[in-house]
Every structure is written in structure tokens, then in C-alpha cells.
Amino acid sequence: MKKWSFVIPVAVLATAAFLILAIRGHWTSWQSDAVVQKTDDAYVTANQIPLSTRISGTVKAVDVHDYQGVRAGEPLIVLDDADYQAVVSEAQAAIAAAQAELAANQAAKHAADAQVQSAASGIAQAQAAARAAQDAIAAAQAQADDAASEYRRVHALYANQAATQEQYDHALAARESTQAALQAKQAQAAQAQAAIASGETARAAALEQRAGLNAKDRALEAQIAAKKAQLIVAQVNLSYATISAPASGRIGKLQVHPGQLIGAGVEVVDFVPHDPWVEANYQETQLRRIRVSDRADVHIDAFPGRTFHGHVQEIAPASGAATALLPPDNATGNFTKVVQRIPVKIVLDDLPPGDLLRPGLSAEVAIHTNDVQRAAQTAATSN
């Protein structure tokens, strides 16, 4: 009897030690090979967007209250925009003044064009008059030459008393008359040349004025473009006076109140859009079979008895410890091995309407790892 009282405890202890060693040696493999991977380290999460001011000003109105649901584009907070409206009006007036000056410059360009055309027409007329004067000079020169030749002949006859006084006077008068006509035609030609020179000068001045107006045109157009850019900036700043919801969701606690003077970049309220997902933190030993698109069942503590269905959208590229603000430094001091957890993003396929799921709610997740693998195997077999 004493012998069995000693053997039985030893056998029990040996069996227990064997079982512990066997489980310890194969637990990780068993856990990794599980078809359904479960974790209760999971939470509902969503983007939490801090809405801030882009400009400084006094809070004119707060159109919402704490934790209110809002629609996309709905005004939340309105700043006093009188100063910014004045800047917009000033920019618009500056553009109108510059455009009026540009219109006046366009009229001056048309006047300069008319002056250029008038000068060109005057030059053409003067050139025609000069050509006519040259033709008249040629004719008058021929008449003057004939009259001078006749005068010399009559003068010789008169000296020899072969011509009468009347014939001599007539020849002299003809010579002087044709000379006067020739000089008159030459004077007309000189006037025509002077008119041509004057027209050329007027046309050059008009062209120079036109070039100056063209340069002024470009400068005014550049000013208008700059003033339009200033107007856009002023209008954008004016639009910043109203802070609106970027999407449908729910706001947090308001940080500002009517009458409060705030500067640019001040956070006024947190915004949570209606697009929650579940972040499940799986142990590193559970990830071997988990793939993107695996089916997942989600149980949320706030809704007992209800199962939400979703799928794996992404698996984090690093563990939570590696991406922490102060990651552990295992190269110094004593080392204790700790199983790391990797965040897995679960997107719900049957997202409930409204905002029943709110960031921070606890959840339990079960990922069916065989779904994607079975589909891949089926596709490989069919090929």
C-alpha cells in the first residue's frame, strides 16, 4: 500500500509535466493553424478630425451644440466677416478701376490708330502732289526753255534792228512768265516734299504713341490679373469665416463660444465622420493564415446578441509597439519576450444606419481564415 501511495503521485506529476511540455511546444503551432482566429482586443474606431480656423476673428454664431449629428456642408461656426467682406469689396473696386483704365487705354489705341491712318493718307496725298508737281515742273521747264530760246532770238534781231519793240517786249514777257510758272511749280513740289516729311513725322509719332499704349495695355492686364488673384485670396479668406462640416458625422465638444476672439489655427471642435471600422489587435502568432479579404464576424459589447459581418481590409505593416510614441529598446537592460500585437483593420459590410457605432466601443472579432485560401485553391484547381 505504501508503495502505490508513492508511485501514483509521481505518475500524475510526470503525466502533468509531459502534457505541459507538449502543449507548450505545440501551442504556437496550434494557435497559428486555427481556421478561425479570435481576439477580444478590438475596438470600434474612426477618423477623428480636429476642425480649426484658417483666419482670425470674433465668433459671430455657433449653429450647433455639443455632440450633435451634422450633414456634409452644414455650417457649424460663423466668424464675423465684416473685415473680410470689406477686403473683397476693395479688391473688386480695384479690378473695376483697372478695367476702366484699360478701356480708356483701348480708346486711346483706337485714336492712335486713326492718327496713323490719317498720317498715312496725308503722306499718300503729298506723294501724289509731289509726283504731279514734278510732271508740272517738267512741262514748265520745257515752256521756259522755249521762251528763253525765243527771247534770245528776238533779242538778237532787235539788236540788229530786225525786230520791232513790240516783238521784243512780247518775247521778254513770255520768258519772264514761263520762269515765274516754273518757279511756282518748283515751290509746289517743295511744299509737297515738306508735306511728305511732315506726314512721316506725324506717323512716326503716332506709331510711337501706339507702342507706348501697347506697353501700357500689357501693364494694365498684368495689374488686372494680380488684382483678380488678390480678389480670389480675399474671397477664400471670406469663405473661411464659415466653418462647415466636411462630411456627414457627429461633432464633439465645442471649444469656442459666441463673442470669443480666436486666432488662425485654433481648434474649435472635433468631428467624427460616419465611416467607422474595427481595429483588432491580433497576436503575432495568429497572423500566419490571416489574409486581406478574409471574412470576419464582429460582436460589439454595446449590442449583445448581434453579429456584424465584415472583411479584412488591411493588416498593419508594423506592431503597435514598433509604432508607439516611445518604442521599446530591447538592446539595453534585461529582456523579457512579450508577444507582440499587430493591428488588423476590419471594414463592416453591413454598417448600421446613423452613428450607432462610435469610436472606442469594445468588440470581439473572429476572422475566418479559410475563406480566401479555399477560394484560391478552387481557382488553382479549376485552372
Automatic annotation (TrEMBL):
Coiled-coil segments on the chain, per record: 88-150
Highest taxon above the source species: Bacteria
Record keywords, A-Z: Coiled coil, Membrane, Transmembrane, Transmembrane helix
InterPro entries with a match to the protein in the record: Beta-barrel_RND_2, MdtA-like_BSH, MFP
Pfam entry (one): Beta-barrel_RND_2
Cross-referenced SUPFAM superfamilies: HlyD-like secretion proteins (SSF111369)
Transmembrane region(s): none
Domain (CusB-like beta-barrel): residue spans on this chain: 277-323
Membrane-protein topology: Single-pass membrane protein
Ranges of residues in domain Multidrug resistance protein MdtA-like barrel-sandwich hybrid: 49-265
Localization annotation: Membrane
Chief location of this protein within or outside the cell: membrane
GO cellular component, one term: membrane
Protein name according to UniProt: Transporter, MFP family
Organism from which the protein derives: Acidobacterium capsulatum (strain ATCC 51196 / DSM 11244 / BCRC 80197 / JCM 7670 / NBRC 15755 / NCIMB 13165 / 161)
